Amino acid sequence: MYLSRFLSLHALWVTVSSVMQHYPSVWGHYDVCKTQIYTEEGKIWDYMACQPEARDMIKYVKVTLDPPDITCGDPPETFCAMGNPYMCNNECDASTQELAHPPELMFDLEGRHPSTFWQSTTWKDYPKPLHVNITLSWNKTIELTDNIVITFESGRPDQMILEKSLDYGRTWQPYQYYATDCLDAFHMDPKSVRDLSQHTVLEIICTEEYSTGYMTNSKIIHFEIKDRFAFFAGPRLHNMASLYGQLDTTKKLRDFFTITDLRIRLLRPATGEIYVDEQHLARYFYAISDIRVYGRCKCNLHATGCKEENKRLLCECEHNTTGPDCGKCKKNYQGRPWSPGSYLPIPKGTANICIPSISSIGNPPKFDRIWPNISSLEVSKPNQVAPKLAMSTVSSVQVANHKRANVCDNELLHCQNGGTCINNVRCQCPPAYTGILCEKLKCERDPGGCSHSSGQGAIAHRLLLLLTALLGATGLCIC
Question: What is the distance between the alpha carbons of residues 6 and 3, in angstroms, rounded to a whole number?
């Protein structure tokens, strides 16, 4: 008897351990769109918010230079070292592979010696400004997840602007200004990201931190994504739940980290001095050896995959959605308006799947035998029983028939998080949950939102439900 109980407890521990793997210390990986769960009625899908894995987005970039003939080497020219204007034994020649510095060398694999780099023409037309625009385009909406890093082979520029576009290059907004003297160059007081806070994180600043002239060990310029994340997630980004909650509820914050294009505007090369040495203009130019941009395809929390097709990135949409960004419902799945997924409640979020149109509910496709567990519904009025629908997709007869539909049942519309369906008209939710299907945490309504401890309490409640069910199956009890 004791042996059988020991084996039962061992099996219980293995099961709970596997469940706990889905609740890491850094919450919210969102790497699964759906899982099968088993109920008394059989298998159903449990849907959740999901997103692609972050990756090196430079692999998919298209680069454009303006002016187009700004790259050195055509015709060949000699350039000098910044630190020694009399050391002019370097040559750029586009017709010779070993001496050419084309734009693609900004994105090749580094680590070789000597390093490879793109280089502009020298400032031979001084005092006419040496302006260069380097545009990086993805033809896809990207969510940034790490710092943008630009490594210069020459000195870091005296003046530079990093810009972003959200509409494929039609309009541009500044991301950050860089200068040796912010007040003189851009009429802005110098700041660093450390001077910002949660309330000012979206402020566009000018920094002098990365424009200190030519130094062999100071060639890198950053646009600090992680430091801005840290205002919400903590210095080591341990509290990602807080960051995801802010991204979910603050559109301006979400848009701040979202791009379709980046533009590097080089306005004045490194001079290393107050005045330009007009006798040695061949020492002034731009050279970039590496650009790093890490992010993920924006799929509106409806996909974990993003593939390249015909030289374009496309989300591999789930939740019955479609489009490059999973931005609309599939045909015959327009039973309610499309909505992006939600990071909340932590850790699985809310899928907001597209549901079948009313006309197709009577004859569901044969391949979709496992009916979706709808993760969230909206109600137009408090006394309205039926979920709110996209009225343009259904007839008045169908709407009238649908108003008699159940809010919950034990077949299609399951109460979540341990809720109980009462007479098919409402879910009786556990104390920590609310919503039509008990899909939301009550603490979300509080001014301070859901704290780390309240989220853990919800997880503990789910695990307690699982333990109770498993112990009941093994004939044991929690005493």
Answer: 5
